[in-house]
Write a structure and sequence with these properties.
Blueprint (H helix, E strand, L loop, with lengths): L19 H11 L1 H20 L1 H11 L2 H28 L3 E2 L2 E2 L2 H22 L1
Antiparallel strand pairs: 1-2
Helix pairs in contact: 2-3, 2-4, 4-5
């Protein structure tokens, strides 16, 4: 058995602050927090809808709170950031070929955004 001690490099808690790529990564990952709150708010809204009109009105009043509106705006911005990073990564992860030729990356990304806009428009019309 060896008496050598392995080298263990010290890793500080702020290791990610030194490089712009990791700062952006941590920002993107931190956007999950307002998304979790948004999901919880909607879940409680479904529960309020089941309980009756008084509970529903109380939930609507809660959702009108400026802090909650701010959290929802941050959650929307976070989900758009996630969509942007996912859509921009898509052509590298899954290149699409039509008739043996690769489709331009910009066309793939713009098609995804067009699909998001179309589905959002349908939801706005239905609701």
């Amino acid at each position: 058995m060896s008496n050598r001690k392995p080298y263990v490099r010290e890793v500080k808690r702020t290791w990610w602050k030194d490089h712009p790529f990791y700062r952006f990564y941590m920002l993107r990952e931190a956007t999950v927090l307002p998304l979790v709150l948004f999901t919880l708010f909607l879940t409680f809204g479904l529960g309020a809808l089941v309980k009756g009109p008084e509970s529903w009105e109380a939930w609507l009043a809660f959702m009108a709170n400026p802090v909650v509106v701010g959290i929802n705006i941050v959650a929307l911005a976070g989900s758009l950031l996630h969509a942007h990073t996912f859509f921009s990564m898509m052509p590298q992860v899954m290149p699409i070929r039509l008739k043996g030729k690769p489709v331009d990356k910009k066309i793939i990304v713009l098609t995804q955004w067009a699909a998001v806009a179309f589905i959002s428009l349908i939801v706005l019309i239905v609701v």
